[in-house]
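Submission sheet (multi-component)
Chains listed below:
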Amino acid sequence: MLTKNHIKLITSLKQKKFRSQHNLFVVEGIKGIQEFLNSSFELHQLFAVDDIFGVDFIQISEKELHRISNLKSPNKAIALFNIPSNSHIVTKGLSVALDDVRDPGNLGTIIRLCDWFGIQNLICSNETVDCYNPKVVQATMGSLTRVAVNYVDLNVFIDDYDKAVFGTFMDGDNIYEQSLPSEGLIILGNEANGISANIETLVTQRITIPRFGDLKATESLNVATATGIVLSEFKRSFTEM
Amino acid sequence: MLTKNHIKLITSLKQKKFRSQHNLFVVEGIKGIQEFLNSSFELHQLFAVDDIFGVDFIQISEKELHRISNLKSPNKAIALFNIPSNSHIVTKGLSVALDDVRDPGNLGTIIRLCDWFGIQNLICSNETVDCYNPKVVQATMGSLTRVAVNYVDLNVFIDDYDKAVFGTFMDGDNIYEQSLPSEGLIILGNEANGISANIETLVTQRITIPRFGDLKATESLNVATATGIVLSEFKRSFTEM
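Outcome: structure written.
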């Protein structure tokens, strides 16, 4: 039975403060929940309209599901999983770092891109939006089960990092004309302000995606689409070598 | 003075039915409105808290602005522009066609990408989300003033099109290994279902963005990020020739 305390807990998890306090986050929908069940994430509690997954669950009505869901069209179930502790950051191969990305949809898309391009580590500045925000979890389409997301003091992390540090800037070198390595860190910046001045001083190679439109064309690309293009270039370039 | 009729008109323009009926759409914020004022779009009516643009306007209070705005944090002004009639479609160079893209954020990002990569024509199936939807207009960041968006019967349009027709599929040829032309049509499909069966029969070259993650990795990329990667490849490839 769905109790008042369940409702209170689930709705509180929209806020980062309560996610940290309870060490829990919400996953919705059959496909998403199944991906988390198949992963190393630990299920805390499952609410469903039916026995869908073959694990212990609390049966709820469609009406109750609508009441606790963050979605306009909830899909049969909502689950609470434990937030894992920060994993060991593997700096082998290519890694991506985000310097203060704020939009949950952008972070979700970037996690999905990391998954597609085989990037195992996504390093986020502490100011970057929380990857357990329900909108991020929903946007990752399960990729959060395969990409390790770590929140760090980005200055300290990059200071300790010993390979090439790439940053995207409007005035960087044309990415199509660079020889791109198979190892390194690629930094993407905040939606409005780009990479912060502090982090900029730590960048060893400034790159840019050239603009082909005329001079009046848009001043910048969305950070998630820029991430996609940059990752595609690194992977293509390395594969051709 | 802001009248009841103004409020009724502006709020009605959230719906496509009323945008078509009045032939008007909404642009918000100083930067966006300025870009439309500098373009060939015709201003119908401007509401602002102050004389910002040096053109005729109806003065409103911040409270009234919040009442008529679609945004959480409206920025000083809201303008109604006339919807232009379908422009002549120029099929020279590269064009992009969307087969039933439904998400306003995706369409907005794709319009911005077309602007960045110098694609002047975006051809949309009649089922694709309306580019004058307020969420699309906001997401384009002014790129809608530079990219001509036309809604057509996509079957008929492609039937008449006489250059290569590229479509993105999971089982297409590796885009990194193709010689890509400077002219042609690139089709991107619906978020959930991809390119429809009808349109698929008209595709002359099936392409794919290779996945580098392991077999369990995400099944697909977001349509806007896929558009970005494909356009980057076409433009890079042609520039190198």
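Remark: The first strand of chain B starts at residue 24 and ends at 28.
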